[in-house]
Design goal:
125 residues, alpha+beta, SH3 type barrels, 3 helices, 35% strand, elongated
Length: 125
């Protein structure tokens, strides 16, 4: 049981909570500088947001793959958006502050459980 809890906590530590979004300039003829997650979020002028992977900008056009279809259906659906229709491009990067806070939030209850378990060995608590 303790192993399952530990695995769940470690998976939580690697979740989206440890990431933040950084603006990227949608400049022509540029590769969108994405972090290790390879995910970019595009906000269009009409307010819609898309999460895409493998984004690049060439000839005033952003080309990428829709992340939602890739995750849900396992297929690659191309996205082609003129730069003139893009309000903002953001890339997802690991956040050291959020990761540290989450790790401490996970480690503290584990340390407390271990401390209580070792104190209560052989006694009724």
């Amino acid at each position: 049981m303790a192993t399952k809890i530990l695995v769940a906590m470690l998976l939580a530590a690697n979740s989206a909570a440890c990431y933040n979004w950084r603006p990227e300039p949608p400049s022509p003829d540029a590769k969108v500088s994405v972090g290790p997650s390879n995910v970019a979020r595009v906000t269009l002028l009409d307010g819609r947001r898309l999460e895409v992977v493998d984004a690049s900008i060439a000839n005033d056009t952003l080309r990428a793959w829709k992340l939602r279809d890739l995750r849900e259906r396992g297929r690659r659906v191309p996205v082609v958006i003129p730069v003139s229709e893009i309000q903002l491009v953001e890339s997802r990067h690991l956040s050291p502050g959020k990761t540290t806070a989450l790790a401490l939030g996970v480690a503290a209850p584990i340390a407390l459980m271990i401390g209580l378990a070792s104190t209560c060995m052989g006694m009724v608590c």
